Amino acid sequence: MMKSLYSGVAGLKVHNQRMDVIGNNVSNVNTTAFKASSVTFKDIFYQNKSYASTGDIVKGGTNANQVGYGANLGAIQQIMTQSGLTYSDTATDCAIQGEGFFQVMDQAGNIYYTRNGAFHIDNYGNLCDPNGNIVLGVSGDPTGVDASSQRINLFVPPVDNKYASVTKTYKDKTDGVEYNYTFSSSEYGEDGNISLTILDIGEGEVPFATVNGTVVTVRMDLSQEFADEEEFLDAMHAALDAGGVELPGGDINLEFESVPANVASVAARNTLTWAGGVLKNDDGTETTVAGITDLEFVADTTGAVPNGYEINLVANKNATDVKARWYDNVLTITIPEAGASIADIQTAIETANGTNDKRQITVSGTDITEDQAKLMLQDDMRLRVGLQGGKDNFFRAVAETMGTIKLTDGRVAADQTTKDLESIFIDDDGVIYGVHTVHGTIAMGRIDLVVFENPMGLDQVGTSYWKTSLSSGDPVLKKANDTGSGAIVSNALEMSNADLAQEISDMIITQRGFQANSRIITVTDTMLEELVNLKR
Predict the structure, then answer these.
(1) Judging by DSSP bridges, how do beta strands 101-105 and 111-114 pair with one another?
(2) Angstrom distance (rounded) from CA 264 to CA 49
(3) How far apart are CA 396 and CA 264, in angstroms?
(4) To bridge 65 with a disulfide, which of 49, 96, 256, 258 should be the other Cys (CB 3.0-4.6 Å)?
């Protein structure tokens, strides 16, 4: 009777151990690259009550009578199946699609194996895992190099002297096209950076330049017609020479990706044409009035871009002479009932403009007669025209809009780190590439994998690590995506392969098994109690 008591205790123990494994699986359902485990039971030794016997011609054989002593733990096996991938925004996050393990080494030189590829690059350029251990493979250009177990250190070559330069965009007011231009110094200055400002000279001044430390101011005649960037640059150098300025960074260069086909100023013009009409006289008769023809307005070529200027011509019976007035970009010209000459209109425009070079407009054509002015009054007619076309000197407009150019990109034999890379990416064979502004795309290392004959035989040591055992066999080095090893997927991590539905089902079965074994103990205890009570 006591045997059933011990069997129940043994059953409780193994179901308790199975529950421990299930609890660990459920606890790690969201652990990166976690591999779940499964539990199997085995029965234990048996006591023979009678042994088996053979039969003969007169007597049949008998089977053995055996009583077991309960259950014991059979095996806790790791489930090494591939799990799904979750994608991340980190280029150094890696997952293995297929067989294999990453290698990492601690500071004592111990090598561990993991499927957790949440890697990062430290300040020394080492490729590290979340525990600070260094990922193994090949450092530098891995072309033609066999799979290895070196610590991966990502090295970016230094750069030679890089000229100080800046690229800006000028948007042409007339055609709306953007033009990129680059100012650069031919050398790197002692203080590194150069600030360059180009200003227009005043009336009576001569081109010159000044320098204060690394701040250079060039004053030159921007109203002259520059045919190309070379002519503009020559004028700038002439101003530098006149001021005795030696640039801190050597010479200054100017390059345009493209320039308009015609960089010289083009007059903006438009012709106001009036077909005329019929004028009703005071006595009731009608007079045919000729139209205003060839009344042309032309913008001065040295002025600002005139597109968008609007000119209104109106008649006013209370006016005694011609008046002109600007409001924003609209010029209103008022003529008296007696009509107006072209000379009077031109004088009024010049009076309205004053010294404003941006609004110098010339008018030409036929005079406006009294009859024509009366007809405009009678019909409340406003003659309107918009100036079309025209372009300032292209290089003048560039100089006026660029402000101060700061040449700030220069550096001398600068040491580079991964922080100077524009981006990093890892391909499916584990090669790590960096994109650099000077060097272009460079191969900086390779993540290599290992495979095992029996990966389920690896010993778990925690923190997503495994180590070799007698059962697992020795690690075999492989390049990623080679025969027998998986491919590396960057910007991704492997998820846990713990199946929550399966674990919950196993939990219920384990609970029922534990409950049944506890009943064995309860019933056995009741029977022992009845046995003790026989003496009564």
Answers:
(1) antiparallel
(2) 119
(3) 10
(4) 49
